[in-house]
Amino acid sequence: DVLLAKITPCLENGKQGIVSSVPQGWAYATTEVYPLHPRPMVTSEYVAFYLKLPGVRRSLAEKMEGTTGRQRLPKTVVESLLVPLPPLPEQLAIAHVLSTVQRAREATDGVIAATRELKQSLMRHLFTYGPVPVEEADQVVLRETEIGPVTEKWHTCALGEACVLQRGYDLPKAERSPGTIPIVSSSGISGSHSVA
Question: pTM for the full model?
Answer without folding.
Answer: 0.64
